Amino acid sequence: MMSQVSVHVTLTNARELVMSQLGRYAPKSVHTCEVEALIDTERFYSIVPKSIARRLGLAWFRQSAMQPDGHWGEGEVTEAVQVDLYDRPATIDALVMGKRVQLSASVLG
User: CA-CA distance, 11 to 96, in Å (whole number)?
Assistant: First the structure.
């Protein structure tokens, strides 16, 4: 049985966040955005639309990944993204596709 819930999350470019913590990047320049996301406890990979990946200044690359339909194939995968949900940060990578942020159960960890 699929379990899904819509939540409000803050996404942050994790690379820029680390660089700002090291004093090598201005904290005010760290790309972040707030979005409504769908958490799907049966999802293996999280999904971030290309428009959100661009808004966060993320790099992405091709890699073998499990696709939403359950088969393995080549897909575009983001660099690290920090997801803040209920004041609990989790760092993920995500497939670049779709029109809505969809998060795997790993963000609940």
Answer: 14
Mind listing the pLDDT tens digit for each residue in 54-73? 999 999 999 877 666 777 77
Q: What CA–CA distance (Å, rounded) separates 48 from 102? A: 7
CA distances for 23 relative to 3, 13, 39, 57, angstroms? 41, 16, 33, 19
Q: Answer yes or no: are the C-beta atoms of 84 and 6 closer than 8 Å.
A: no
- Report yes or no: 63 and 20 within 8 Å, Cβ to Cβ: no
Nearest-angstrom CA–CA distance, 109 and 51: 26
Other Cβ atoms within 10 Å of 55 Cβ, number: 16
pLDDT exceeds 80 at position 1? no
Residue 68 pLDDT = 67
